[in-house]
Amino acid sequence: MTLQFDTHDLAKKARLAAVGDPGRRTVVSADHPRPDTPRDENAADPRLELFHFVMSICSQKSRAALFEAGLEYGSNEVVIMPPVNENYIEQYVALRMASQAAAEQPLVGGYTGATGVHGEGFDPMVVPTLVDHETGQVITDSRDIALYANTLSGDRLVPETIHDAVMKQVDIVDGLPHAGLFYGANPDGDHRPPPIQAGMNGAHLKKIEQVERRKAELPVDSPLHAAYAHKLKKERAGKAFIADPDNMRALIEQTKTAINALEVDLTATRTSWVTGDTFTLADTFWGVSLFRLLYLGYDWIWAELPGVSAYADRCFARPSILAGAISWPGHPPGAAIERYAV
Ligand SMILES: N[C@@H](CCC(=O)N[C@@H](CS)C(=O)NCC(=O)O)C(=O)O
């Protein structure tokens, strides 16, 4: 089923209301991956538009996948950090609510620490969001965005012959608790870079305040009240979740298990990439994910794993991972950025 909305109208309203600085509205492509070509607001809309944020891991996966697919898109950088939270602006939420995912899934109500959609429900207020003006679709999840890019590219990211092996890895990465490891501290030694430790201190509470503020500004009869109410439930659950050291230890254990399994897979295949000699969406997702873990100081997990260590370095040199994640301008500083960004 394809829902037909006026994506031009919805995306334009979201762009103008939620991307405060026109300098953050650009056009990006694999040939020109840096967001420094200003968008001509009077020109026809590019077919694809992405709403995203520099250090959102889901945005990084989407940008890297769009790069691998060789697709051009209008780049709309939404600041998601409190107290700015442009992602809570009504027009942006309205755009996400026009997606098929919003129509099909229950609204988010809980917190798992992961960023994949399974188990939490539909979050109406996060990035990334991809708009395809040609088909009238709004795609609201990084895995779906990557698969959409794959289809448009004629299966460049998920070759049909190795589809199941690639998707198995993609789903492992999608289930990793990246949100929890970013917002919450390791109770046995917090190695997140100082700007992240400072920025994440009390972050859920700050998000709750911003959602409440935006909700209070909605017209009384707005159909979006439920979306805001559900986001509040998730953020309250997240605040309680990361405050419990046992929860944080469980997330770290889960991550260790996945990385150990990756070592086993890499050792078994003895190829450059996780499913063989071809770089695929599995490597795009793993590369972005390993870089995030490195940035947050979790690379001790694979320090003694030669397969993952070498694989991580190969991934970090891949142009799509560099362009979409590591070198995207505006990333907060940290040892990993200094070492790998170009
Ligand atoms: N399932 C979604 C999750 C998206 C998500 O969790 N986005 C985070 C950044 S990676 C976000 O926008 N957080 C802002 C907020 O919750 O206010 C996806 O994979 O795209």
Portion of residues in beta strands equals 5-15%
Q: Give the SSE order as H and E letters.
A: HEEHEHHEEHHHHHHHHHHH
Helix vs. strand class: alpha+beta
Query: CATH-wise, what's the superfamily of the largest domain?
Result: Glutaredoxin
Low-confidence stretches: none
| Shape annotation | globular
Number of H- or I-type helical stretches:
15
Which radius of gyration do the C-alpha atoms yield?
19 Å
Helix content: 40-55%
The neighbouring-strand order within the major sheet is 1-3-2-4-5
CATH architectural label of the largest domain: 3-Layer(aba) Sandwich
Bound small molecules, by name, code or SMILES, are:
glutathione
Whole-number total of structural domains: 2
Multimeric state of these chains? single chain
What would a concise description of this structure say?
With 342 residues, this protein is of the alpha+beta class. The protein contains 15 helices and five strands. Helices cover 50% and strands 6% of the residues.
